[in-house]
């Protein structure tokens, strides 16, 4: 009986020692196999924080012109002008994700435009000539958006723009007038921004601005009611 007890004790001791050795070996083997394995990098994502960018595109102004000439002219017209041209400038902003999917940014910009058009109308005795052109513009906006994936987001532009607009009017052999006016108005738009590489992203956007009316001076009292359709492509550098 005593002999059997001794054998049982020896077997139990042997089992414990074997288990301990096995665990130690497995732990050492795990460290040897995995200690030099590379850590998985985080997913590539569109950066947040401060950004600076350059943009270029096309302006298409729609201008309702209610012509009011001197009393000696018989010109009566209410045409819609289309002033088009290239546009480009810079923007500065700050954006961040406020949740896993909701994005919000604030932005300011300044552009230079080459949009212009000419129109002429004959009244039987003389010709009315007009040139409308857009020069610089600037504005501010908020850009609420939605995450499309780790590297892209869609957004809406809501803001206020100011633009320097000019009209030049004349009658053949008669009066002439030039008017320079800073019109302002509400802008809305939609766009998509996508990561290119590292801190660089690209943006495509459409926006529409409803500008305030203005009236020419001098011998003329022509009313101009402008709005602008703008198509832009921008490249942004994110400082984050």
Folded structure, characterized:
- The protein has 240 residues and is mainly β.
- The chain has 2 domains: 37 residues; 190 residues, Porin.
- The chain has 1 helix and 10 strands.
- It has an 8-stranded antiparallel barrel with strand order 1-2-3-5-6-7-8-10.
- A hairpin with a 4-residue loop joins strand 4 and strand 5.
- The chain is elongated.
- It starts with a helix and ends with a strand.
- 25% of the residues are buried.
- The N terminus is likely disordered.
Topology:
Blueprint: H1 2-34, E1 49-66, E2 80-97, E3 102-113, E4 116-122, E5 127-149, E6 152-171, E7 176-197, E8 200-211, E9 214-215, E10 223-238
Task: Enter the CATH topology name of the largest domain.
Answer: Porin
C-alpha Rg (nearest Å): 35 Å
* Global morphology: elongated
Q: Which band does the percent of strand residues land in?
A: over 45%
Q: State the end-to-end CA separation.
A: 78 Å
Class inferred from helices and paired strands: mainly beta
Poorly predicted spans: 1-5, 7-28
Q: What is the name of the CATH architecture of the largest domain?
A: Beta Barrel
Number of domains: 2
Number of helices: 1
Question: Topology as H/E string?
Answer: HEEEEEEEEEE
What is the C-level CATH assignment of the largest domain? Answer: Mainly Beta
- Percent helix, as a range, is 10-25%
Instruction: Characterize the biggest β-sheet.
Output: 8 strands, antiparallel, barrel
What is the count of β-strands?
10
Estimate the mean pLDDT confidence: 85
Widest sheet: strand order?
1-2-3-5-6-7-8-10
């Amino acid at each position: 009986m005593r002999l059997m007890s001794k054998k049982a004790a020896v077997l139990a001791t042997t089992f414990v020692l074997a288990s301990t050795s096995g665990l130690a070996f497995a732990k050492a083997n795990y460290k040897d196999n995995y200690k030099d394995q590379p850590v998985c990098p985080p997913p590539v994502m569109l950066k947040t924080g401060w950004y600076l960018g350059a943009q270029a595109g096309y302006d298409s102004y729609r201008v309702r012109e209610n012509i009011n000439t001197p009393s000696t002219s018989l010109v009566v017209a209410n045409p819609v002008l289309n002033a088009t041209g290239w546009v480009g400038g810079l923007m500065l902003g700050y954006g961040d994700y406020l949740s896993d999917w909701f994005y919000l940014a604030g932005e300011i910009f300044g552009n230079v435009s080459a949009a212009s058009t000419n129109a002429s109308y004959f009244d039987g005795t003389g010709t009315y000539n007009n040139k409308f052109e857009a020069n610089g513009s600037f504005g501010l906006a908020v850009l609420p958006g939605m995450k499309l994936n780790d590297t892209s987001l869609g957004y809406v532009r809501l803001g206020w723009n100011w633009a320097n607009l000019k009209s030049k009017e004349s009658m053949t052999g008669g009066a002439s007038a030039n008017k320079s006016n800073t019109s302002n108005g509400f802008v809305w738009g939609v766009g998509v921004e996508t990561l290119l590489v590292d801190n660089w992203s690209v943006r495509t956007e459409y926006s529409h601005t409803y500008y305030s009316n203005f009236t020419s001076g001098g011998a003329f009292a022509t009313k101009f009611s402008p709005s602008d359709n703008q198509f832009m492509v921008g490249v942004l550098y994110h400082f984050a």
